Amino acid sequence: MPDKEFANTLIRNFYGKRLGRKLRSRQKELLAVDLKKLNVLNFLDTTPDGKQKLDLTVAFPGKSSVWLEVGFGSGEHLLDHAKLNSDTGFIGCEIYLNGVASLLGKLREEKVDNILVYPDDIRNLFPYFPEQSVTRVFVLYPDPWPKKKHHRRRFVTPEHLEPLARIMKPDAQLRIATDVSDYARQTVEQLHFNPNFEWEAERAADWKRPWKGWQSTRYEKKALLGGRTPLYLTFRRN
Ligand SMILES: C[S@@+](CC[C@H](N)C(=O)[O-])C[C@H]1O[C@@H](n2cnc3c(N)ncnc32)[C@H](O)[C@@H]1O
User: Fold this and answer.
1) Ligand 1 pocket, 143 CB below 6 A?
2) CA 13 to each of CA 68, 187, 210: distance values in angstroms, whole numbers, following the listed order
3) What is the pTM of this model?
4) Known catalytic residue: 143?
């Protein structure tokens, strides 16, 4: 498996990194062995109309809801949340294989049975979610793409918001954290005026304070060390 061969399975433009430092043999083994068991695509099923969809009741038996984290980095937030919410099934999606290997390494040490992983571009997974199947979505410190000409590469564009609206249940939450004020501006612009979503904030404290039960991430720690201010934006699916 992985390395270049795996990286080349991508079928569309992706501007971020698929691989960082050369994978060590333990990381390769985690991706080859553990990922086989934990890949959410193991739970694809064919619906009566011949479509391939994730069967989330089989994927997460007995769990009351499914939460999705897009771009989990090394997975510390995903793992902490899964441990704190044992009645919820978690799907973590991350295209950066070094990060996926890092999460898999942590999962080997932990007794957690409610995380499945998609080690690729979220855009490729969206079509496999049943409609209205996800109760909470986290996008934490998405790649900032600071240059104006690259703003369309940001996550908060219709390319991602339309499929998210399809897979999120009514009243489901989309939680986005960023330390880039212009990213927050674009997020609010895209979501506040999107008929499928409503911004939950009522006062400044609502976007300045982390969510209840917040688990910090590696990028947030970097942001704080760099003197930047995190912002926490919550949108509700109408
Ligand atoms: C700036 S990092 C933040 C990582 C982590 N959430 C944190 O706060 O430490 C953004 C992550 O999103 C991932 N990412 C970006 N676009 C993605 C996509 N389309 N599908 C899956 N992951 C993606 C990147 O690979 C990267 O690891």
Assistant:
1) yes
2) 22, 22, 33
3) 0.94
4) yes
